[in-house]
Amino acid sequence: MRSRPLTRLLTAILCAVGMLGVASLSGCSETGASSASGKITIGFSAWPGWNVWQVAQEQGLFAKNGVEVELKWFDVYTDSLNALATGAIDANSQTLNDTLMSVSGGAKQTVVLVNDNSTGNDKIIAREGITGVADLKGKKVAVEQGTVDHYLLLLALAEAKLTEKDIELVPMATDAAVAAFAGGKVDAVGAFAPFTTTALERPGSRAIATSAEFPGAIPDHLVFKADVVRDRPQVVQGVVNTWFQTLAWIKENRDGAVGIMAKRNGVTVEDYKTYDSGTTIFTRQQNIDAFTPGTTPQHLNHQARLAADFLTSTGLAKNPPNLDGLFNDTFVKAVPE
């Protein structure tokens, strides 16, 4: 979840905007989502803030809001990004950084809902003997380049007056990075839940930095293809309404909801409960506040500028993403109070 091999994503984006000539030569898929019909297809993957969709489906709440939704689960988060970029699905649950990466490549996408902020479930985890970020100088740190955990690592290094040049960065996919850390091959790793659970099983390991220390830096969203938002706003509204009704159901049926979400993520109920404080699900008012332009960490436009700088300064994105029209607060504002 929440990691991205950049070459695959770039190919998908170029396919979506018609910049690669022949589909059969470029690897582009000709299969699209059924946006012309009544059904909407939403992608999601293994992150605590996105399991709410599973509850909505199992409790029949999409139908109660007049929308026909097909949920598509992705074992590999990257595949969900590619699916949205190529139009194979209508919407996806994804991070701000990944949305900006797609937009910088020419994809037309619109953020309509803030699912959550990571408030601890993204972590930099180090071996025994490393007690703080400053101790990472000269050490091997595994992380998937371009991911939110790479971003978190750079934020933590900067706070400790270090840069990426002060460590030995070992670029690896998140699951492989965690395996390398657990096997003693690297000194530290950047990862997200539920992979953090595996990393912390290494004897003596500890989290030396988490997303809780950088409020607002890692927001997660529901992102639609821009044409769906334009052409089918009533469907988008029904999906957004369903999200908040599902949150209300979860509040009243906590044990049942946790059971559903833990099963979807393939973890125990006990492990799932440990993720609660590390993912802050946004209320309607928190959504409205986040969409409102401003210059503090709670504002999406502010975080988008910071994340865009990260993507371009690291060379992950060649062009700055166009932020005009990226955030649409119409739907959260229209949710019945």
Automatic annotation (TrEMBL):
CDD domains on file: PBP2_SsuA_like_6
SUPFAM superfamilies: Periplasmic binding protein-like II (SSF53850)
GO molecular function: ATPase-coupled transmembrane transporter activity
Signal among keywords: yes
Gene3D superfamilies on file: Periplasmic binding protein-like II
Intracellular or extracellular location(s): Periplasm
Signal peptide start-end: 1-25
Keyword entries, A-Z: Signal
GO cellular component: membrane; periplasmic space
Family: Belongs to the bacterial solute-binding protein SsuA/TauA family.
Protein name: NitT/TauT family transport system substrate-binding protein
